[in-house]
């Protein structure tokens, strides 16, 4: 009996299934576990920890405190720490806010985990006020801002302390009266000699008059006995508020002088004038001295006389003025000579220019008449008459202008001394009494 194809296929399938079952049993038997296998033998391994990125840590706030405008620059250091597990790349550090803040850093390479770098913030106080800003740190984690704060005040005003008063003068050494010392010594010697001589008897006579011991005059109060001419001085004077005639006041001319016409000028004091105590200001810088002047009078004058008739103090307005409008001081040059010197214009052209022109015309007319007399008879005689008349005109012009006084010009800023003709008393404040 031959199997059919369908039956052969069925048998092959049965054989194959049987073979698979045998192999499964054999594999299970091969992977049998030992008796001491751990309980977690087939446990799955835990996953690796997640990565720890770089993290930045800085101060929450930086304060520069309160300072003054005149102080030097202030620097604060801000530490930048990497608290993460990977290197921290810092791309830039800068400040925002007022220009008084400046930043610098040493963060040029990536910051390793746990390491740090520094940023240096400098504040330069230049004016008064409150200054708020920020330190900006740019890194791979983003922008980190650190607030900055500073306050600047003006320095307190300088207090000027008056110098202490000068110490009182030392007491003069005690004066020794040589004459009294000699008389005392002689008296002691006589008493000593009398005590050594022992007792003696004194005879008293009734009606005896005791004669006073002689006195000798050894000093005169003045020189009048010899007939020497002399004058009596005053008592000592406190010159704290007095400016005496022997002291010059130096001033500066505040405008230019041209003596062609009379005028008034002002001299300004350029250095203070003190009393004898060295502290009381009699004339201070800026006080004005008013003076008047007249044109020069004669040919050959080279100095301009100025007469001071009023003084006005700048600080309190007190003035010095003669009720009769008279001069009480004169101006001097830098060498203390009375009168001012300057550029002199002798007016030569005004004196002789016109006369010389007329004389020249007369000479030309005379020469021309002499040349043309041969062709025009009688012209020479007419020219002679004209020449005589022009000569008279020339003489008259010279006579009128020969006495023209020169003109002097003094530049502004000249140093001028003031020579007083009398003492100046600075009036002291007076106490007002209530009626």
How are the elements arranged and paired?
Layout: H1 5-30, E1 56-57, E2 62-68, E3 74-82, E4 90-96, E5 101-105, E6 116-123, E7 129-139, E8 142-153, H2 178-197, E9 242-243, E10 249-253, E11 257-258, E12 263-269, E13 273-274, E14 281-283, E15 288-293, E16 306-312, E17 319-321, E18 329-332, E19 343-345, H3 348-372, H4 379-401, E20 407-410, E21 415-420, E22 424-425
Parallel strand pairs: 2-8
Antiparallel strand pairs: 1-3, 3-6, 4-7, 5-6, 7-8, 9-22, 10-12, 10-21, 11-20, 12-15, 13-14, 15-16, 16-17, 16-18, 18-21, 19-20
Helix pairs in contact: 3-4
Largest sheet, if any?
A: 6 strands, antiparallel, barrel
Strand arrangement across the biggest beta sheet? 10-12-15-16-18-21
Beta-strand residue fraction: 25-35%
The name CATH uses for the topology of one domain is: Lipocalin
Secondary-structure-derived class: alpha+beta
Could you give the distance between the termini? 174 Å
Q: Any idea of the CATH class of one domain? A: Mainly Beta
Q: pLDDT average, as an integer? A: 78
Query: What do we call the CATH homologous superfamily of one domain?
Result: Type IV secretion system, VirB10/TraB/TrbI
Molecular shape: flat
| CATH architecture assignment name of one domain | Beta Barrel
Number of helical regions: 4
How many β-strand stretches? 22
Keywords:
single chain; 435 residues; alpha+beta; Immunoglobulin-like; Lipocalin; six-stranded antiparallel β-barrel; four-stranded antiparallel sheet; flat
Q: Could you give a short description of this structure?
A:
The protein has 435 residues and is of the alpha+beta class. The protein has helices at residues 5-30, 178-197, 348-372, 379-401, and strands at 56-57, 62-68, 74-82, 90-96, 101-105, 116-123, 129-139, 142-153, 242-243, 249-253, 257-258, 263-269, 273-274, 281-283, 288-293, 306-312, 319-321, 329-332, 343-345, 407-410, 415-420, 424-425.
């Amino acid at each position: 009996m031959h199997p059919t194809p369908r039956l052969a296929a069925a048998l092959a399938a049965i054989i194959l299934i049987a073979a698979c079952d045998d192999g499964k049993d054999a594999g299970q038997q091969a992977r049998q576990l030992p008796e001491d296998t751990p309980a977690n033998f087939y446990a799955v391994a835990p996953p690796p920890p997640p990565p720890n990125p770089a993290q930045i840590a800085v101060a929450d706030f930086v304060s520069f405190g309160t300072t003054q405008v005149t102080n030097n620059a202030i620097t604060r250091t801000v530490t930048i720490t990497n608290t993460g597990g990977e290197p921290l790349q810092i791309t830039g550090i800068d400040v925002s806010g007022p220009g008084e803040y400046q930043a610098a850093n040493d963060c040029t390479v990536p910051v390793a985990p746990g390491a740090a770098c520094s940023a240096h913030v400098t504040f330069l106080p230049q004016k008064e006020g409150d200054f708020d800003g920020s330190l900006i740190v740019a890194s791979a984690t983003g922008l980190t801002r650190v607030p900055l704060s500073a306050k600047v005040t003006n320095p307190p005003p300088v207090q000027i302390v008056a110098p202490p008063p000068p110490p009182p003068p030392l007491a003069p050494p005690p004066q020794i009266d040589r004459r009294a010392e000699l008389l005392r010594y002689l008296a002691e010697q006589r008493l000593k000699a009398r005590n050594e001589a022992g007792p003696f008897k004194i005879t008293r006579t009734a009606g005896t008059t005791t004669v006073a011991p002689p006195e000798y005059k050894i000093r005169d109060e003045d020189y009048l006995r010899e007939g020497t001419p002399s004058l009596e001085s005053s008592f000592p004077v406190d010159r704290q508020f007095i400016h005496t005639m022997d002291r010059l006041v130096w001033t500066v001319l505040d405008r230019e002088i041209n003596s062609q016409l009379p005028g008034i000028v002002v001299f300004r004091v350029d250095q203070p004038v003190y009393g004898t105590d060295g502290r009381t200001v009699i004339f201070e810088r800026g006080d004005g001295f008013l003076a008047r002047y007249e044109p020069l009078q004669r040919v050959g004058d080279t100095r301009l006389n100025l007469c001071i008739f009023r003084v006005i103090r700048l600080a309190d307005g007190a003035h010095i003025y003669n009720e009769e409008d008279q001069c009480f001081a004169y101006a001097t040059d830098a060498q203390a000579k009375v009168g001012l010197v300057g550029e002199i214009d002798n007016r030569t052209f005004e004196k002789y220019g016109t006369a010389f022109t007329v004389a020249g015309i007369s000479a030309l007319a005379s020469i021309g008449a002499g040349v043309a007399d041969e062709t025009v008879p009688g012209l020479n005689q007419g020219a002679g008459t004209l020449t005589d008349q022009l000569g008279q005109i020339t003489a008259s012009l010279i006579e009128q202008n020969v006495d023209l006084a020169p003109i002097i010009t003094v530049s502004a800023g000249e140093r001028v001394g003031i020579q007083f003709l009398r003492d100046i008393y600075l009036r002291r404040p007076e106490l007002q009494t209530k009626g």
